[in-house]
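User: C-alpha cells for both sequences below?

Assistant:
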Amino acid sequence: MNHLNHQCDPASDEAAPERLSDQAWLTQVFRENELAMMGYATHLLGDRDRASDVVQDTFVRLCKQPRQQVQDRVRQWLFRVCRNRALDILKKESRMKTLDDANASRQISRDSDPVAIAEMTERYENAQGLLASLPPRQQEVIRLKIHGDLSYREISELTGLSVGNVGYLLSTGLKIIRNRLATAE
C-alpha cells in the first residue's frame, strides 16, 4: 500500500487527524473513544441503556462543535461532556426519585392527619385552578420555572421573551395566585 494513500484512508488507524475530512475525523474519534466512554458512563449511571444515551448525546454535541476548538483535546472534551451529562441525569433522577411499595410502607408519614392531607390537596387543586386562570404565556413561564426548574435565562431562550419580561410574568403571576389563595382562605 502506498504510504500517502494510507494516510488519507479514513479507515486507517494511523491517519493524521489534521489530514482527515471532518466526517472521517469524527468516525475515527468515535471508534477510538466509544467503548471507553460506554464503560465510564455505565459505571456512573449503573445502567447500560442510559449510558448509551449519554454517549450518543455526547457525540451529537461533538458534531456541533467546531473541530478546531476540540481537536487537540478531543478525548478530554468527550469525557468531560459525558461526565457532566451523566451527572445531570443522576441529579434529575434524585429529585424525581419515587418510592417503591416496600420502601413506601416503611416511610413514616409526615402528614398522618387526614384533615391536613385534605386541606393540602384542596390548596393544591385551588392553586392549579388559579394557575389555569392566568394568561397562557404567564402559565407557561410559571410552569417552566416550577416544574422545569429552569433559570430566567433558560426560560427566556425557550420562549423568546426577554429575561426581564420572564421575571415580571413570574412575579406578577405568582403574586396573583398568592393573593387569590389568601382571599379564598
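Moving on to the next sequence.
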Amino acid sequence: MITCFIRYEIDPYKKNAFIEYARNWGQAIPRCGADLVGYFAPHEGSVSTAYGIYHLPDLASYEAYRAKLAADPLGQENYQFAQREKFILREERQFLKIASTPHAGPQTELIKP
C-alpha cells in the first residue's frame, strides 16, 4: 500500500474555492479507484497550506486511477475549475509507505538505510 500526500499552497483569499475543489474530489477520487483519506483546508496556523491524502495498492494502480480520473466528467470539471479560478499556487505530490506499527503489520517490508 502506498499513500499519496499532496501539499497545496493556496491563495488564502480563495479558501472557499479550494473547499469546493476538495468536495468535488471527495466524490470523484473514490469513484475512480483510490481510497481517499480526505482533503484538509487551513484552519489554524498557516492560512495557505492545504493537503489531500489517499491510498492505493501500488504505483501501477496509481497510473490506472489517474487515467480514470482524467476521463471522469467531475474530474475534468474540477481540473478546469482549478485552472480557471487559480486558487492553487503550488502543488507537491509525494508517495510514502507506512513504516510504523501497529498499522504496518509484520509483513511490511522494512526500509533499509
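User: Anything stand out in the second?

Assistant: The domain at 2-96 is CATH 3.30.70.100 (Alpha-Beta Plaits).
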